Amino acid sequence: MKRHESTPGLLMNWEEWSRYDAIGLAELVRKKHATPRELACQAAAGIAKVNPSINAVIEVFEDVVDQPVKDGMNPEGLFAGVPCLIKDLGPTLKGRKQEMGSFLMQGNIAPNDSFLTTKMRKAGLNIIGRAATSEFGLSDSAENPAVYISRNPWNIDYVTGGSSVGSGPIVASGAIPISHASDGGGSTRVPAGINGGIGFKPSRGVFSAAPQGSDLTALTSANGCISRSVRDIAGFIDACRGGAAGEFTPYWLPAQPYLEQIKRDPPKLKIAISHEWGEFRATPHIASELQRAGRFLEQLGHHVEWCTPGVDFRAFYSVSTANSMTRTSRLLNRLLKLKGHVRPSVPMVEPVTAKIWEAGIERRSDAQEQIPVIYNQISRTLGEFFESWDVILTPIMTMPTHKLGTDFTTMNDKISADEWFFNSWRLYPYAVMANICGSPGVSVPIAMDENGLPLGVHAFTRQAEDGLLLQLSAQIERALNCKWNQNQRPQIHVTNL
């Protein structure tokens, strides 16, 4: 590594910076070739370069850029002070804003640190800022001009995927190597897939939602991260996993750390490839890209065959809609009370969000009865499927990434809550199955849309087989010589500006 002399204050040139993953940067610190402050300053400079074009980062914490250990970051941890962002939804930072992508929550200050954020700091991750999210994590796009409009670095006319709408593009832009994300129905994997990163949703019993929630109250949601390397994700899970006091479900450990497991290829896997899920199916181009990915996995020694789980998809999406509606309604009721309001109205919240709140109240009693019944049926069916198959492979979405300002946004005041959810499932039907069943899922950037944007290929497996999925991802990474996205870069990238 050569220090970057042409721009005072930077550790290295942008081409070199963009090639390092988080663990690679941590190795520089341990070898005394860099300091956590130098890494933070470079990341902040990278964000300043790309963020005016993509609006992926809401705030940079200048105090922890200048003093990385100020908030308790452990420089002896695995990541040794590597800069990271926190999604502005879910885990909190004491005394910092958490605004949840909503005009309603502007200026909201978190009263405490979440358990996960303390674990991230102990792991040596320096949380230097907040990444954008769609309002309350509902949409695949943040498009409220009163808050911010986030844009895809491959083409700024397109959405970034949600609800981790900032984490995906800021990693893809090369500004920062890793960012926290969270996933209630694909919200880590979709933005990874749309922007060309690697996004992983772990099984239940890996990352704690304490103290705000638990695996009972956040049954379908899981924290995770988006990165540019598989080993970053393996290290993030190894270093940050574990439950807090009073968890309702067991928090488990693998027989061997994932950073060790991914050094080995997985055994020969039986992989079911699928894209026709009930009435939803991929476009011909995306189906052909999925088939090409299947052939690639066959070349790696796996058995790949077209097969779809025998799930009642109509019931599955119906109850998933009810679950999302009632969860959003309960969340909004709590936040409205916090802010001194009785009901949400536009522009306090986005138009579809207000409709979802109302629909959630109307369906709460029926949903409480139906959700556990249908989810149990789905989980049992999928569990039986995984007795014969190791992995299910799908695209991350059925259609090409869409432009900003379409019917999919929660800013659309012309559609009902049910119509909005139908549009969402029609576009992203595959990822949510892993959320319902507590299974791990990953999106890897090995395909491209016809519009020239990345297309993630999505894989998920049985619960607690996270290591197997990471092994498969690492095997793919090695076979590609780490050249994801067909070795292409987005237009908005630290090396281009």
Could you tell me how far the N terminus lies from the C terminus, measured between alpha carbons in angstroms? Answer: 21 Å
- How large is the count of helical segments? 16
Q: How many extended strands? A: 13
Which overall shape is indicated by the principal axes computed on the Cα atoms? globular
Spatial strand order of the main sheet = 6-8-7-12-13-11-9-10
Strand fraction band?
5-15%
Structural class: alpha+beta
- Element-by-element helix/strand order: HHHEHEHEEEHEHEEHHEHEHHHEHHEEH
Write down the overall mean pLDDT.
96
Sheet bearing the most strands, described? 8 strands, mixed
Radius of gyration: 21 Å
What ranges have pLDDT less than 50 throughout 5 or more consecutive residues? Answer: none
Helical content class = 25-40%
